[in-house]
Write a structure and sequence with these properties.
Blueprint: H1 2-25, H2 32-54, H3 61-71, H4 75-85, H5 90-96, H6 100-111, H7 119-122, H8 126-137, H9 145-149, H10 152-163
């Protein structure tokens, strides 16, 4: 039953995602149909990860390749996949590194340390740079200092952190 359930969910996600990609390519069709499909995609995606998380199951080996293929579609799906397959994967990390916030989350958990591939994007955001410095690397984040000092609130917090 588990195998059939997971296979069905992953295939549904792929179908909905492909439909969204087609609509995004055709600007004239971006309307209610897009938002309905996008909502369905998020719902099915959430259902899959909730099922895996609630059952505290490792993803079955025979579904790993199917899952990895699905997970290459966006930074958030790559992040979730990396979190639950419990191993580093270069091709997923390249996708995760295309989004600053997801890169920060990935560095914080599951890596619990530097994520150098995503640092250049993190460094463009004052708050993420500050949080990355304090909560991930627990040290000065030189690459992100320009962004941090461009925001008075973040620069005050950062200076306080550095002075400790």
């Amino acid at each position: 039953m588990f195998d059939a359930y997971i296979s069905n969910i992953v295939l549904q996600i792929g179908d909905v995602y492909n439909s969204i990609q087609l609509i995004e390519a055709d600007k004239d069709k971006q309307s209610i149909l897009y938002s309905v499909l996008n909502s369905e995609y998020k719902s099915i995606h959430s259902e899959l990860w909730a099922f895996i998380q609630n059952k505290k199951l490792d993803f079955p080996k025979k579904h790993l390749e199917l899952l990895r293929k699905y997970c290459k579609k966006s930074p958030i799906t790559a992040f979730n996949c990396a979190k639950y397959i419990k191993e580093r994967c270069d091709d997923l990390e390249k996708i995760i590194a295309t989004d600053a916030y997801i890169s920060y989350q990935y560095a914080q958990f599951p890596l619990k340390g530097r994520f150098e591939l995503g640092e250049s994007l993190i460094a463009n955001d004052p708050l993420l740079s500050y949080m990355y410095s304090v909560f991930v690397i627990c040290d000065r984040f030189e690459l992100g200092e320009k962004a941090i000092y461009s925001n008075s609130y973040c620069s005050q917090l950062y200076e306080r952190f550095l002075s400790k």
